[in-house]
Amino acid sequence: MDFRTLGNSGASVTSLCLGTMTFGDESDESVSHAMLDRYVEAGGNFVDTADVYSTGVSEEIIGRWLKARPSDVTDRVVLATKGRFPMDDTPNGVGLSARHLSQAVDASLRRLGVEAIDLYQLHAFDPHTPIDETLRTLDGFIRAGKIRYYGLSNFTGWQLTKLVHRAAALNIPAPVTLQPQYNLLVRQIEWEVVPAAQDAGLGLLPWSPLGGGWLTGKYKRDQQPTGATRLGENPQRGMEAYDRRQNEQTWSVIDAVQRIAEGRGVSMAEVALSWLTNRPGVTASIIGARTVEQLQSNLASAELVLTPEETAELDAVSAPAISDYPYGELGVAQQGRKLVGGR
Ligand SMILES: NC(=O)c1ccc[n+]([C@@H]2O[C@H](COP(=O)([O-])OP(=O)(O)OC[C@H]3O[C@@H](n4cnc5c(N)ncnc54)[C@H](OP(=O)(O)O)[C@@H]3O)[C@@H](O)[C@H]2O)c1
Fold first, then answer.
1. Burial of 43 from C-beta contacts in 10 A (0-12 / 13-18 / 19+)
2. At residue 263, what are phi and psi to the nearest 5 degrees?
3. Minimal CA–CA distance to 181: which of 171, 169, 190?
4. Is the pTM above the cut of 0.85?
5. What residue's CA is closest to ligand 1, atom 27?
6. Whose CA is nearest to atom 46 of ligand 1?
7. What distance in angstroms lies between residue 211's CA and the mean position of ligand 1's atoms?
8. 325 included as an active-site residue
9. Which pLDDT tens digit goes with each residue over 246-298?
10. Domains of the chain by start residue, with CATH
11. To the nearest 5 percent, what fractions of the chain are helix, strand and coil?
């Protein structure tokens, strides 16, 4: 696994980050600990969680693992978590306010059993809290030694640009990363969010790199999902819901991934992850798994280098439908300097 700098910070992280959203849910504590062991044995040093994953249980499982393993293993881990979403239904138990974030960061530190969080991420934008209030709160966390860096998640282009500019105006450290949904089935962020992140020097940490499992080929045309899979257990689940995601382009992308995987003698997960991890601006793909075997297959993607032809085939088949303007051909021409007679 190669190392990359964590966005515009000086820290180094592996290009595959271990996501832990399944911990305490689909994966019990012993499987979760086995995944953490396997991940660090393979050379990984970057773990992502959030307070809301299994309502705090994912952080607690990681905390118990950190406590049980020798410090020469745990000291290497760059630990990322998030705050913003509700852990209870009290009026101030949600959002990016000073009040909520102060309680949330202390609760995460307690559950993880660490003195400092390496990367504290705002889980999503909050339209009700002034950005300056959130930034001053984060600056206080850095000064108090509770967090080392902060990052954003699920922000749109204008939201992250506004935050970066306010941070500069207030002389507060800039965010270092953006964690968006990004995979071969969801590329619309390339129109506005990726350019904004690159302009601000933020590293991308894509979540759902396998589209919630779709890119492994486990879901089939005209077959309602069954069995112990994410959609087998709940076909309507989240972004990856069967009826929401299945369409002609999805099946074409899956066919192309399968063709390339068969040609190379590797799993479909390896192909989809290799494509994503090597997209412009990506620092690390956040890999998720239910079992150690799935994790093992996903870790193998670090060894797979796609050819330019394979990459071009995947780029073409997965390109999101785009109208001519402002994100399509005519808009892009107008934004450059080559358009002759353009208005
Ligand atoms: N910031 C955010 O808002 C946000 C949102 C979501 C996730 N995340 C982060 O991103 C991480 C990854 O997200 P994700 O779990 O949605 O990623 P994903 O890689 O798209 O989906 C993971 C799921 O796909 C299936 N899978 C994974 N590897 C497989 C393999 N080799 N073969 C067959 N099936 C496989 C498993 O589900 P089944 O076996 O159950 O089918 C697994 O739980 C999370 O752990 C979390 O850290 C962040």
1. middle
2. -65, -30
3. 190
4. yes
5. 289
6. 19
7. 7
8. no
9. 999 999 999 999 999 999 999 999 999 999 999 999 999 999 999 999 999 99
10. 3-335 (3.20.20.100)
11. 45, 15, 40
